[in-house]
Write a structure and sequence with these properties.
The protein is 24% helix and 26% strand. The strands form two sheets. It has a nine-stranded mixed beta sheet, sandwiched between helices. Strands 9-10 form a two-stranded antiparallel sheet. The protein is globular and about 55 Å long. The chain has helices at residues 14-23, 68-79, 105-115, 139-149, 221-226, 242-251; strands spanning 2-6, 29-35, 54-58, 61-64, 86-93, 119-125, 161-167, 177-180, 193-197, 203-207, 229-236. α2 packs parallel to α3 (105-115). It has one domain (2-185, 217-251): Stationary-phase Survival Protein Sure Homolog, Chain: A (3-Layer(aba) Sandwich). By secondary structure, the protein is an alpha/beta fold. Bound molecules: manganese (II) ion. Manganese (II) ion is lined by residues 8-9, 40, 92-93, 105-106. Manganese (II) ion binds at residues 8-9, 40, 92-93, 105-106.
Length: 253
């Protein structure tokens, strides 16, 4: 089984090292192509306005001066001699739950894989406290990664679907199990915007993620994580709201 790994926190992200250890439990045919720099929050963006550079770190390890989507596209079209059987994106430093999946570079890399018709799974490690810097513990992901992946490797994936996995912010031995759940919803409060003045006297704004609140709906990813479970959520790329089709069509005669 040929596996492509990527990670929106960049080619040197600790979560990518954690993911490689998980993937090597299934295969030695591992390829890595990830953004050169952190791209958290890049969503499904594609670099169009400037060239993208490809750097080879070793035989099967590459970085791209672009987004997670760029990295997957480059891997599939320029780097790998044959398509992978599986794309794993992560393990992200931080949650990708509820509405956050559309901001997520981690999920979007898996979306790009799903669009290419390849089995794709996004993995994220929730962590409890802010200000931990690089010291995010990936223990839950490392201990539970293979357990959650194994049943997914031969599960049927419908076209244009992917799976989003989140590991709770707990030591591995305190994780309660695995739940297959719906995507939840945040209350709309997109965190803080910190305002300041740069060294040259210009005003700047910086988005933060604190202050996002939610009341987890039952059987959602948010609830599973709150309850100490690994969440497994199948996602679809067809965003059409079926129930509105007939109503809107009626308004246009
Ligand atoms: Mn990230």
């Amino acid at each position: 089984m040929r596996i492509l790994l990527t990670n929106d926190d960049g080619i040197f992200a600790p979560g990518l090292t954690a993911l490689e250890a998980i993937a090597r439990q299934f295969s030695d045919d591992i390829w890595i192509c990830a953004p050169a720099e952190e791209q958290s929050g890049a969503g499904h963006s594609l670099t169009l306005s400037r060239p993208v550079r490809l750097r080879r770190h070793d035989e099967r390890r590459f970085s791209v001066s672009g987004t997670p989507t760029d990295a997957v596209m480059m891997a599939l079209r320029k780097v790998m001699p044959a398509p992978p059987d599986l794309i794993l994106s992560g393990v992200n430093r931080g949650a990708n739950l509820g509405d956050d999946v559309t901001y997520s570079g981690t999920v979007s890399a898996a979306i790009e894989g799903a669009l290419a018709g390849i089995r794709s799974i996004a993995l994220s490690q929730v962590y409890a406290s802010e200000g931990m810097g690089d010291a995010v513990p990936f223990g839950a992901a490392e201990a539970w990664g293979a357990k959650v992946l194994a049943p997914l490797l031969d599960a049927p994936f419908a076209p244009r679907t992917l799976v989003n996995v989140n590991f709770p912010a707990l030591p591995a031995e305190e994780v309660q199990g695995i739940r297959v759940v719906r995507q939840g919803f945040h209350d709309y409060s997109r965190g803080t915007i910190v305002e300041g003045t740069d060294p040259r006297g210009y005003r700047y704004f910086w988005f933060g993620l604190d202050g996002i609140e939610h009341t987890p709906g039952h059987a959602t990813d948010l609830e599973a994580i709150q309850d100490g479970f690994v969440s497994v959520t199948p996602l679809q790329l067809d965003l059409t709201h079926e129930a509105s089709l007939a109503e809107l069509a009626g308004r246009f005669g």
